[in-house]
Fold each of these.
Amino acid sequence: MNNEEIIQKNYLEWTQFPFDKETIQEVQKLKNDNNSKFQDSFYKDLSFGTGGMRGIVGYGPNRVNKYTFGKNTQGISNYINKISDDKEAVVIAYDCRNQSKELANQVAEIFSSNNIKVYLFSSIRPTPELSYALIKLKCICGIVLTASHNPPEYNGYKVYWKDGGQIVPPIDKKLIKEIESIKFEEINFVKNDSNIQLIDTEIDSSFIKDSIKNGKIGESKREEYRVVFTPIHGTSYKLLPAVLIGAGFKDFHIVDKQAIPDGNFSTVKSPNPEEQEALEIAIKKAEILNADIVIGTDPDADRVGLAVKNHQGDYIILNGNQMMIVLTEYILSKKENLDQSFFIGSTVVSTNMIKHIANYYNVDFKVGLTGFKWIGKMINDYKNQKFISGGEESYGYMVGDFVRDKDAITSALVACELGSECKTNNSSIIDYLINCYIKYGFYKERLISIKKEGAKGLEEISDIMNSLRTSGIKMIDGIKLKFIKDFESSSKQDPVNGNSSKLDFPKSNVLIFEAEDGTTVAARPSGTEPKIKFYISVNSKLESKSDYLKIDTLLENKIERIIKEFEF
């Protein structure tokens, strides 16, 4: 069938049983308007992938609504009941987004109707607390409704398994198969109240205690370290202050106008803490208070952004790689008797500098595909080793294994521990970062995201990836390519002599070009947004602090040349 035929077929399906009156009316209204919104809502099914489901809230098969989320839930329910003779339990959390609470209640009702015990958070909670509660309550599965830092019109459905991490092979494929087999009329919406139990403060208190236990690692004058914090209208507005103040950071200031949960994120263009605009109000407050650090978290509090003063006295936002560098170096520096029985984790598109830090401290370094679930999986896969911490370039970091996903709250505590210790020693986080560059090499990265929406956008992203695969690139910025890694074909190729070897990774639509000087260019479609992402990494030696600005400029110029070369 062509697109028009698919749209018509899906439209007709959504105008009759089992869809309710409101849905049918809204679908007909969309059809009558006959615009691109209607086309985009019906040209395909919103897919449940290995990372769950994320999309625009609305009516139709390519939208987030009670029916698309209902299929997910019914499929997961069927799978749980197939593999277990005992009555299993799930835990559900949701963030501040519009309709998150209503959708979470519907998800809970479907699980309850399938004779599955449900622990439902009574109000909004961060994603890391969902992971924590899953382990604490010994549930088989956890669901969090969130679209992370996506625009307000989005929502999502993330699935976690009994280890506390996001679903990974082989469970993900089994769940997908079950979900895809579900027809809308098979969704059981009949609530069983006896199977639903609300949870809240008891889990909060336990999480706060364990977060402090894992993140309070320094020796400093914490009470003299001034913190400005913004939850950007999200879920961390209670837990993060409780953790920081509980750890001893008394000089703590929250951005009042962004402390109120708001699914419209009314004070920012995007609730993404890696963007300057999202932290603008917090930085202005920091300038007035002469704060030492600015902390911002995304709506579900799994990602954290940090702004610190540079040598010119301006607040600058550390990128995800820089944050990962200083946190990893600091955590490892506080450990004793390290050896290869310990490990840290990262991803294929994150800075290679982390490997050098691991080698220096004689700990094992493991790298996975993009997506934090692969770092969480490492803990299960290597039970004979002790996980210390892990991070990725997209502002995700995890400290210890008491949760199994990126954790903005505990990561923020470690950042404050580092900052306060630097201040006690008349130094700063920027100085600490530069010292890391001197010690391990100066790695500088740039992320470029290109938005491509709708069916046409998907096609364009596919064309870009195909073009890169057939481009015949043999040099980057005048330096010969060392290899090309294609994770879709599981191959590592030497473009000069033509040699090829197999990559021991699950298949994924990721390409990495690496030159002989360590320069890398990676490309991949986003798994959660209509974007294609390019990751550029360059490096150089740094002999002293006095050379920092000069080398920084040289690396910045190199990145700009690479951007022109690849025509991003």
Note: The chain has a mean pLDDT of 95.
Amino acid sequence: MKKFNYRTTVNIHENTMQLGFHCQLPAAMAGRRIRLQAVFSQRQVDRRFPMEVTLEEQENGAQILADAAIELPWVFRQPPRHKVMVTFSLWCGTEEYLLDDQPFPVQKELFARPEESRKRSLFKFVLCTLGLPFLLLRAYGKAGRNLSKAKKRANDTVYRISGYTYSPRQQNTDYFAAKYEQWVEKTPVLEGNKVLFLSERLPEEGGNLQIIKEQFARDPEVTVTEFICPRTVDALKKKELRECAARCAEARVIVLEDFYPQLHRLHIRRETKIVQLWHACGAFKTFGLTRMGKPGGAPQSSMNHRNYDFVSVSSEAIRSIYAEAFAIPTTKVKALGVPRTDCLFQWESKKEKRKKLYEKYPVLQEHKVILFAPTFRGDGNKDAHYPPDAFAVNRFMQAMPDDVVCIVKQHPFVHQTMDIAPQWADRVLDLTGQDHINDLLLLTDLLITDYSSCIFEAALLDVPMLFYAFDKEEYMASRDFYFAYEEMVPGPVTENFREMTNKAARMVSGRWSLEEEEEPTSLANHLPALTRRMEDFRRVFLGVLDGHSTERIYQYIKENYLS
């Protein structure tokens, strides 16, 4: 266990803690990515809060400097009943060090939350509407002359004063919450074992939600219900909102695989448990409440994610990362696995899927396969895109050997198509929106990606990977990663199209090595350094995946949450 000599500064004013951290950087950590979490603990409940870290060169060596402005009333989902102790967790790369030798207490009274009394007043709403031009003008100045931010600010002001809002999203969320409360009052006692599968997007074939749903559907002691509608809450009809609220109120377990916004507005009854399967393995890009203060990130007061009772992840090493992202106690995050990966351990299933794909796309059987599968750019579904000039598929194919086929598989959020020249029509397959990426990985000789979570499934299948990160600095500034990108990814990183194309041609032909010291004839047999990196990657991020995730998660839910 490394010893750290560190000191902290604490200043609390009006229930906001200005927390500072100062530590000498150990020589062994030089050049590594450093992350820091402030850990607030009361009994068995903790909250991991990300801190902003900078490394500063001083006369006595490099120093770790970290700070955070923490709004204490919003640290815990419920105000604490006991004294809170604050410690730190320091990450160097993928190694975590608990710094709990200098805990300091914070009185529970400082976490008190002002009672919100949002009584609806139609009269106040009318007055606000009459004064809306003034509110917009004031908000316009405070929002740095940004009209869209000004509209949101003015709308929030009207909502705070009157309890009414101009936002269809907020209107429907409030309606949904009201109907849930009414239904709970009508059915004060839960009966039976109803498991509700909830999603605002169509479940992916072979995805976590579908697999667990099928598992419970085979259990005669469980009643499976669902509310799956590929529309956001602002687009749902009142009838649909009432139906969803009723099913939530009747469910003993609610199962998710992604963020379901309006669910976090509810005061969930004690008997109902919420299970978050999440849709990805590992921990790559920052997500959830880790992104506080970043573009698209939630405010500290957000209740998003905080009512999960159980989250399943792919390794012990990343439990505290998910606890940070969802602002839940680490004890609620269990390393029980990811159901969608089970099929990657089933030889007969893999063989059958390969056979079907070869029958569907005969050209794949006769060629080496490069799979191009980048993630999207943008803030979400509505503005998701991939820069059309970033991957010139026709120029790419000109540099490839004649025995190579390229599959293009864009993120499901991206609906644009690539301009494929007729001469490449038989060797470039755009399968965006078709066939599950896990199935395509079974045929892949080289995966080219950037920041996509498909790297975790590829690692389980031992697929060689090449990373094309042309906008890495921009992406880090807006989204960031939990670990240093180059240290984490199990393959070489390129930042321009020409370099990526040349390296892809060499890798798929088996003429490249990690150290560029030899020219092997077989990539798989002659890349020991890359193999070691892949093994380390799997150990850290995928440690518990063994083909039995579905069974473990099913048993955990049934034994702990169902009567």
Note: The domain at 6-111 is CATH 2.60.40.2440 (Immunoglobulin-like).
Amino acid sequence: MQFAKRMTDFIQGHQRIYCYGAGVYAAALVHFLAEQHRKPLGCIVSDGESAAASCEGVPITALSDTELGADVGIVLALAEKWHDVLAEVLQQKGICASQIYRLTEPEVNAIRIWESVALNQSGKQPTSGEVEQYEECYRNLMAKFVRIEVRMIFIGAVGASLHELFYHKRYGFPREDVYYLFAFISGGGSPWENAFEKPNSFLYKVFHGEQFCAVNRENLSFWKYVFAHHMDDVDINGAWSYYVDIIRDSIHKMHNGDFVGNRMTALDISCVEELGTQSLRRMGVRKEYVLFFVRDSVYYEKNRYDIKDTVLRIMDKYRNSDIASMKKTADYLSEKEISAVRIGTTPLPHQDMGSIIDYAGEFHTDAMDFYLAKHCKFYVGDHSGAMFFTVYWDRPMVMVNLSVITGFYDGTFPFDHRRDLGIYHKFYSKRKKRLLNLSELLVIEDCSHEIPIYSGTVNVMMKYYEHELVPIANTEDEILAVTQEMEERLQGDMEYTEEDEHLQMRYRAILSPYLEARPDTFFCDVRIGRDFLRQNPWLTR
């Protein structure tokens, strides 16, 4: 933890220490400094900013009420975009640059990763016998590896976690002489809050191998011991750059057709096979079944995200859909003796879903998420994190209500036209008073790169919102048609005409110039539903 030394040197160089900020960054810093036996005297907030009385036991004070001087050191513990502004304000009050420490996002993440393990409130204190055992395990580990690199797992959303699992299980790690430990951080609050439950508790149990593992309930005490006694051998990687590198490498592998035909076998879920069979029987699921998924706001509400946040409202506007639009499709599958199973973590209250079996709620377990995905015939649903369960097992996907054409940064589109089908939202422009075709949408999406990166797909949706585009959800007949197409493809009964192939070529021809200009961009590499293109030829003009 090289940054710890730099911060320690800064702290020791000043008699009085203040923290500027009172949010998540500040809370993490307070915990870290407490372990160094140097809590800040206060957490400073700008004048007029409403705040609580304290942050993790440290009093919150307005800037104008804070006694500053030459002996004061101030750590800027808030988003980096505010650092320059606040540094200028502090310098106007007589604070020189050497009295200011700019806490970077990688440093904050590293602190929170360390905190999530070292200060985790779960588990028990080890006995003397367990200490000896831990020390022996540690020495055996370091006999094989030169160091331990700790990387974060963001537990706010399942898609990010599963993508990382998918990648490393498939392609390994950068160095063979390094042991990789994955620790969790949450989107807010305590970094360990519900850490072993979100986004999928079973994930942490199966995410392990000769060279890596994730912190879980069973091994937490051991890793707390390592963090307490052997931090010199531990390197905490708090940067998101490694994850972005994974994404970029995934783009190129996907474009080379490397996301299909290699069903993952490294993940051993044999421990739940019998339980899974029993659960299917309890649910009344037939031998063959299809997974259904619709995105809603329940997850963010359940996990106490601020659903009033503009970004989340935009995501809901362009990504959420209605399970009712899939009832006709479920009835079609039922006639073919195929069950339709809705996946998710929370049941839909007071919702008539027809022949759709609601797995969420009573039947849901984190282990069953993996089991259902492994054995399903295919997936029908929205572009959301839940699809990664099926991606992991290389199952075919029918993507409906696709809300963006391209994505970048962390906007992952692990699709392949040889395996997957998809149909888009239609987008109505309030300004032009008509529907926009794909070429027009790509012009808008290209502008999303101008936004300071929040998320690749979110940036696109923010541009859609800015241009006053209204999403029109796929109809029940459109969803039925593309599902029928997938079923016929899997049965070997699907035949395409020359015109069908021409329409597909037009779709890819529209994308080609854009992708050449944006080589680090994902795109929806699905085969567009046959009937959808036939009925909407204007889309590919």
Note: The chain has a mean pLDDT of 86.
